[in-house]
Amino acid sequence: MGCTEPVAVALACAKAKELIDFNYIKKAEVYVSPNIYKNGLSVGIPNTNEVGLHIAAALGFIGGKSEKELQVLDGIQEKDVVLANELLESGKLTLGIKDTKEKIYVEVNFVSDQGSSKSIIKGKHNRFTYLERNQEVLLEEKECIGKAKDDMNLLYTLKINDIIKEIEKIPYEEIAFMMEGIEMNEKIAMEGLKQKRGMGVGFSLYENMKKGMLSDDLMNYAMMITAAASDARMSGMSMSVMSSNGSGNNGLTAILPIVAYKNKFHVEKERLARALAISHIMNSYIKYYIGRLSAICGCGVAAATGASVAIVWLMGANDKQIEGTIKNMIANVSGMICDGAKVGCALKLATSAATAVQSAILALNNNIVPAKNGIVADTAEETIKNLGTLSQEGMSITDHVILKVMKNMQAS
User: Fold this and answer.
1) What is the pLDDT of residues 35-57, one digit of tens each?
2) Location of each CATH 3.30.1330 domain in the chain
3) Cβ-count burial of 69 within 10 angstroms (0-12 exposed, 13-18 middle, 19+ buried)?
4) pLDDT, tens digit, for every residue of 249-259?
5) pLDDT at 152
6) Residues 74 and 64 sit within 8 Å (Cβ to Cβ)
7) Which residues form the Serine dehydratase-like alpha subunit domain (predicted)?
8) Does domain 4-140 have CATH number 3.30.1330?
9) Number of neighbours of residue 32 by Cβ within 10 angstroms
10) Helix or strand holding residue 32 (H, E)
11) Is the pLDDT of residue 351 over 90?
12) CA distances from residue 376 to 250, 282, 283, 313, 338 in whole angstroms, order as listed
């Protein structure tokens, strides 16, 4: 519930608070990675009319319950928001950027009248790697040393078409839970179409469809519902979504273009569940190479590629056409940057969803970007690795520049 980065901050704060009994707060220091800071700076917080990491952190201390994990802000009431703002006004809570190469990192140092505690989330938004109460270490996850990256992640060394063939064999009951994502994410999309929320991208597209300015075809419909869901989520609407690879907006992008296809064409539940599984796995596959939080928009290049592959699979594509869909996507949207989570993300999700449909249709008609066309290689796997090189090496400074620009605007 809510954008994943401020929710991770709220979760770490809630856990630190729960580690020790106290009557009042003396001091609370929160440190986050540059990527967490960038992604949480301008996004709406559920159950409030406010944005940003500071209020999320304060709410974690005041009303957050860590057992809810990434739904930690579920149940926050108006009185909690008042108390959270009082905590911020007191100056006892500070939030700064940690000098770390970790993409996902939240550290909380909490001091109360009854003692102190510390919590650290690292690697994944709900993964605690360190907990401490009154200098006693309760949890310390050691770094895994001596194993090669690929040894621990066999999945990402496999051929994509081989992975899809394995997904086709999985018993339906083992992936039936994927259908929950359709229910959750379509529900928030429909809320975004009822009235203008955030930028109102999806709502505006819907209004223009009704006027006849836009056709109600698969591409526009996918664009509309994906944007509408982002409008609602980024404005802080208190509804849960199914995430994908640690990102709620990735979940919207990985699922909703498939929902659009389902709403336009009849698809059996079992086949729909497999399409969703393909989309999530493709998102994970690409994000393994570009990084969980990167300077490249994960929705555009990873989640939307997953949706595109799933759609072309539903259309009956062969192995070459599935590979071609990936090449078409990366040739098109690889330059989309991530400049933080915010209401404007609805525009990027709209573009990503439309491109997902476009790439699938082109590949199905054997219109595929040729090898050695920019970063597009002979195979889909090599193309994804090239995208990873672009992200990890070529854009290593880009995140710092984006953050610098955003901080300068906040200060002015």
Assistant:
1) 899 888 888 898 888 888 999 99
2) 4-140
3) middle
4) 999 999 999 99
5) 56
6) no
7) 140-404
8) yes
9) 29
10) strand 25-32
11) yes
12) 23, 17, 18, 21, 21
